[in-house]
Amino acid sequence: MAATRLFSHHSAFHETFFILPFLLRLHTAGAFKPRLTVSSSFPPSPRRGANLRKASNKPSPSRNLAFSPGRPKRRTRSGVDFDRDLYRRYTAYGHAPVMLTEVLEVFALPRLRSFVDCTLGAAGHSSAIIEAHRELELFVGLDVDPLALDKSRARIEALLSDGSRDELRAYTHVRNFKYIKAVLDGIDENLLSEGVDGIFLDLGLSSMQVDHAERGFSILGDGPLDMRMDPKGTLKAKDIINSWPETEVGRILRDYGEENNWRFLQEKIVNARKGGGLHTTGELSDLVRKASARSGGRQGWIKTATRVFQALRIAVNDELQTLENAIYACFDCLSSGGRLAVISFHSLEDRIVKKTFLELIEVGEGQEDKDDFTLYKNDKFVTEEQSWSKQIVVGRNGVIFTKRPITPCEDEERTSRRCRSAKLRVIQKH
């Protein structure tokens, strides 16, 4: 019989430990053989330390990110076949796991013994990973949202309820992913020295959050201006809207929302304070709709409102700095040959992921800016089955498998509109 045991609650977070089973059948997408181009030049290797992040006076990527008019989008499709049955199988609570087939291929390592899902959500990706890897010995799921974690924990417990996997240790924590080191050290003090084989971050809002108006994330609902990912957080969106200095409101709209019309919106938001301020998502959406009337059409104001809500959500949760810190921490936690995969959903996140990956692997000076890469194939890093990887960059400390981010296939985009802005980047530690 499989055993289930609930650990005691701790002051910082609580955890659930279950040693339970599962049974697997997984569809595998057909292989597509692209041309591989790789960068491999870099200067002599310096002394390597355990923590690769260096002290620096460089400004955070969250600053000076004003919008710049764009060039046409260059999309790099993964090349994998969209498995509709697999997609439906792992959809739960109205939330579909984005780029699921691609994520499964990323972690199709010869041996995946340990895996950490830093954004557990509805556990769609994690459920598929657990079923795909019978050799898995340790699973850890983190989520800052306790409501989401309760649902995902129940889903994983149900998945592992047939008694066939007594050797699998599975933990779930209500915890921000920036604390991954503390979580792993609390589970097993040897984990940080040995490292884990796979770590995954999906930075998108889940349907469980967007579809509940009381969370304050939806521009079409009418709920309190909250937007906290962690319900225990003290800062709410209404605090920024009604109390922060006018210049700070404008900076948030400009830098985090990349909104061209930020000055006009800043003025409208601050003027609304004279009438008692804005306290609901409906009131903020109405203000944006009226301010955007000159752009014409419903789509115009909705896009503007989406940028305004994004800006406020990033500020409330300090998302960009948290992301940068978390990526460094996750890379430190990887074993040799371990992989970190990140799915981002807007350009600010993707820039941070790209920049941090390049810093982590330490490529040669100027190499990351080259468009023409030395033709190179190394079976240590690339196999023909990795159809999702088109161009790789090799550095002293690791390999980036995605010089340009991978985007969902067209079939998946037609199935789920919410996945259209998703970008997948993958790094592997030497």
UniProtKB/TrEMBL annotation:
Keyword field: Methyltransferase, S-adenosyl-L-methionine, Signal, Transferase
One Pfam annotation reads Methyltransf_5
Q: State the source organism's domain of life.
A: Eukaryota
The family annotation for this protein states: Belongs to the methyltransferase superfamily. RsmH family.
Q: What are the start and end residues of every segment in region (Disordered)?
A: 40-78
In its UniProt entry, what is this protein called? Answer: MraW methylase family protein
Residue span of the signal peptide, if any? 1-31
Q: Which Gene3D superfamilies match?
A: Putative methyltransferase TM0872, insert domain, Vaccinia Virus protein VP39
Protein's GO biological process: rRNA base methylation
